[in-house]
Amino acid sequence: MDTQAELQDLLRFLSRDAKIPLASAMGKIKGLRNAGLTRQDIFADEKLSKQVWNAAKRVSKKRSAADAPSASSPSPTKRKKTDISLPDPSASTEIEQSLELPSREINDGLSNVVLFTNRAPLVLAFAVVLLKYTMPSQPLSSRLSLAQAVVGANSRSKAASLGLEKGRSAEEEGWGQGQPSVKVMGREVRVLRRWGYEDDNSLQSADGNMTITDGSAEATCPDKETEPALWGLDLEALRRSNTSQPSNTDSRTPGGLPIYTAHSARSYLLKSFATASPSTDSSNSQPKKKSAAALAAEKEHNLGLLLGALDSLYSSWSHALTKEELDRRAWAWYMNVRPEVEAGVAGWGGKGEVKLADILTLRRKG
Questions:
Q1: What's the whole-model pTM score?
Q2: Is 349 within 8 Å of 118 (Cβ atoms)?
Q3: Do both 118 and 56 map to the same domain?
């Protein structure tokens, strides 16, 4: 079972036909790929084993009936809605190119730049650039997804502490149990290995090693074959897809997989960093109103400046600190420059100023 199509079929069968939660189904894929194993070898629970067996018999009967033309056969449009698809390896290069982020060179004028934003996209920017140094084997699409997973987990925790979210999180309820995790900015995030992804330019790290925590064990991957590209797993979306719980966020994911998508993370970055208004004086002059296109171009330019400043910060420390130490310091650096907002619920989603000079000051001297 080595082809991408077979993996898609198996994942679709377990989650849709056998009615097994997607998290459990993904955890069984590796075992089922080993030839010669019976369903009892993989599904030790007798009830679950019978559930899979009965589903297999139902699907077999359906396929036999489908061999004959039938007016009741589902249309391609309907089938497409329930398909669980995996990335096309041949499209990997195009995907990465479509996700390129703006970048600007560091110059003397950068210290005078002041941005106006809220905290969540700043965390996202910090994490995306950090992963370039702590997990260099990951392609940009994976770094965006993993960084958005950090933002999602952090926002959920903050909302719960403010009383804006009730009940236990999906992580606390065990929806991520059995899935591997990685640490980004000091926070553990659950990940999903990207089967079928191929990008020779992105999967080889600088030192050939990457650490992924799987359950309670840590494994260091010494070669390219065991360094998979990753998605950040959206546990809240996973829980919603298996329950009747209403959604408070956009949980649309490609192919039905509950992941944080790279394109949505990139879009969030591009629209989040405005230029802070200059301090007003006694003058009553009003600045000219900019067009939507001009504002979008300005925000993209500002994002490039911010990413350039962050890259300069991480680069200055990358040879003096280990990847683990760099990851630990990243959160403290973010806390040092994040925008000031009102305390408590009143400050939720609030915006403030971010001075790039403050980021540049954190660079290693000498």
A1: 0.71
A2: yes
A3: no
